[in-house]
Amino acid sequence: MWWLNKAVGLVVKVLLLPFTGINPWGGMIFISFLTAVLMLFIYKKTSNQNGIKEVKNLIKGYLLEIRLFQNDFGTFLAGLKKLLSVNVRYLGYNLKPLLVMIVPIFLLLAQMNLWFGYRSPQPGETLLVKVKFNQTVEVGQLHAEVEAPEGVTVDSPPVRIIDENEADWRLRIIDQTGGQLVIRTGSERYAKDMSLSRRQLAKLSAIRVNQNVWKQLLNPGEKPLPGETEIKQIELVYPEARLKFLGLKIHWLVAYFLLSVIAGFSLKGLFKVEI
Amino acid sequence: MRQIPDRVFYFFLKRAYLEVFLILSMVSVAEAYIGPGAGFAFLSSFLIFFLTFFLAIFSLLSWPFRWLFRLLRGQKAYQNSQVDKVIILGYDGFDPDLAEKFMAEGKLPVFSQLKKQGTFKKLKTTTPAISPVAWSSFMTGCDPSKHNIFDFLSRNPKTYLPDLSSARISPPSKYLKLGKHRIPLGRPEIKLLRKSQPFWKILGEKGIFSSILRIPITFPPEKFSGHLLSGMCLPDLKGSQGTFLFYTTNPERIKKKEGGESLLVERQGKMIKTFIPGPENSLLKKPEEIKIPLLIKFGDNPEQAEIEVSGQRFRMQKGVFSPWIKLSFPAGLGVKIKALARFYLLSTSPHFELYVTPLNIDPEKPALPVSHPFIYSSYLAKLLGSYATLGEANDTWALNEGVLPENAFLDLAYTFHQETEKILFNALSKTRKGLVACWFETSDSLQHMFFRYLDKTHPACQATCHLKDGASVIENLYKKMDELTGQVLTQGDERTCLIIMSDHGFKSFRRGVNLNSWLYLNGYLNLKDGAATSEEWFKQVDWTRTRAYGLGLAGLYINLRGREAQGVVEPGEEYQQLKKELVEKLSGLKDPDLGTAAIHRLVDTEKIYHGPYRQEAPDLIVAYNEGYRVSWDSVTGRVNQKVIEDNLKAWSGDHCLDPDLVPGVFFSNFKFDIDQPSIMDIAPTVLDLFGIDRPSYFDGQSFLSVASPAASAKINKNDRIESAQKTKKARMNGKRKRRQ
To answer: Among A209, B269, B397, B644, which one is most buried in terms of CB atoms within 10 A?
Structure first.
């Protein structure tokens, strides 16, 4: 799984590299446009284009029928029934492309979350590091320490949350050098990437997980922890990033959704895709 | 009354909340996939769900208000109605004599049963017996002088040139100039020239809904309470009544084609690059034809070709029609004019030949209004697929000019026929009460083109009769119409009155009379000095020395001073005297070759027309004898030395002769005790059936006012007619049994 994540991560990194020095909207627009093209291509190849066209015409037809026969209640209701039934057919036609597209989109979204989901903390800001341990470890008895990278200080002793089997530390940013954060438990050392950047668009891996496949898919930024460890995951609680537009702070997923849909809609005619 | 809508309203509101909840609950799933493909589709789908519920709620809430509105307007629809539904099937040109012949031979079981238990009569047509005239009289209940349609063409007295009699399209009066373009400030004026009002407008005012499908002379569509799809006289995208395209690499086949355009193309290796000429671009300061590229590619199979046009690529098989292909003509400034056409590959070697139907206005995105309401044409296209919109879609000229083979013409005509059938059955299924009227062109155009197979002595037979089973084309047509009638009958019940009617009958058209040549040879029409022929549209006619001229299919005009631009005949005595002279000389005009009378009589329109538009009528109407009609040259204003000549075209049957010789048909499942019904009687009869008084200006009379009480009859699903009494008896028995 790590190799797949690494490969997809590399592709996304190459794509976004030219946009790291500028406003994150640049990268967002570019990737939305690119995925719109890719998804349109996949959609065209995997869907029943004639069926979709036919069903869409029927949907429009029944909508017009409802309008045209609004004074005849029987015909009006029959039109509504047909409209709903045809709409279900339309949804059915979308299942196959949905199943095919869900794989690349899922991988892509997980990668995009690394780039657009968080922002690098500024000097003076604090952030938590949360370490979750396996059930076999007694957190209350455990001696654990954090070694912060250069430019970061450990601001507090560990807070142990017994119910969650978790130990948390507060870190303070002195400067944005970044590096590796190390958790020491006895003789064991577990590293966690703590990249800090002055750039407007940077890849930040918030969580390093264990060998769980599902968790690896959702958190593809780092190589998973070794198999037989006492730690389940290490999380750096970076501040969340928002894209600014006319005074609004927009979640990247919303922006991506809107932009990719607009791009897809605009380009569907060019690529002759029936959506 | 208030509780029911409220309850339903809350039901739908709850459903709407449920939908919102479902969507919100799916957000986590949506996060896993949000993109332009399926995501967009899902979004639209949910939008449709919402829209559906919104429409349902809106309709439910507004229902009481609409009901109240109708009540306040005093509409008491169906209160005095004797029927719930009237279905009128207009089989253009359906001939009573042929129908009787085929009925006698047992080939038309449905019509035979209608004749036996309902009504079958010859239907008196209009003078002249021409479709636009007769159908206008059908819908208005009036003679032509009240609806102003006297022919397909009317003449412009200022120019002596023909105009389309039914509609006039004028460009917008003001434009905003923008570089080489001009933006119209306003819409083009599309004016219906037919006067009076169709009876379905009167029905609508009384709250009775109508579906009027393809009935002639309904373009531009008029507003009324119902749905209408325009029919005959609706133009193609080029503004003509149908201009086909013929592409060929053979220079010998390039000549002027009536009703079409020939284009000589050159084969370059394995392809041909050419274009489709479209409508004139009125957005340009100097309007010019819009052309779109047409690419034809040839592969190894000599029976096939690949066509690329308007961003579409499709394979053509020789001798097979393509489906409707959507064409888009860019006019500039982002404006695109949409059309539909079907392609037919005639041959690939030794010469390439391709036929393209006239550019039909796309009903989905019509460049001109083709229906009322405007969305009705689009609704039909979305639901039933693309269909022909051209008023007379069956391309008779392509067959007449030898471009389209006979079997291809039949194939095309029956495809259009099926489209109309689909539209009709859609309307029948949606109209529980009211009027459904539908016109079928096939019966007219097939008889025009295949009558020569029934008339062995027809001059065109030897040269044009190539079809093996040509003699059965018309018989099969009548059988098909019989079958359709049976299917329609199953859609009704004892409260449904079915009327099958035609505007005229048919006779063989063997010889053409060039009326203008006769006028020329007899000194009534003169050519300019030195001219031997007049050329098309009276080009060489000296109007200052011309007293009379013929234009259109039956009209004869006097060059009257004060009315015509260069009129020479004084109104009053001279005018009357000239008319009298022409009537005397032309009535019974002998065919010098055969010795028979070519012209039966001439009708002085002053004596038969009394309506407000009688001034627009021809002065005399020529009623030709059986076997004769006005010649092709005379219609287009060509004068030569020959008065009567053989008709050598495939167009071999006609009805532009004495109206008494070509009555239409009238069938009904109701028993009407009538003697000589007229096409003008249909409108008052339908009004009467719905319990509406006949307007005083109508010329027609209701069948009910002269008939014994209507005894209804119906045909069950096995196409068996049961009399109303049987039905009534069965009902009574049922009631008695229930009581017991």
So the answer is: A209
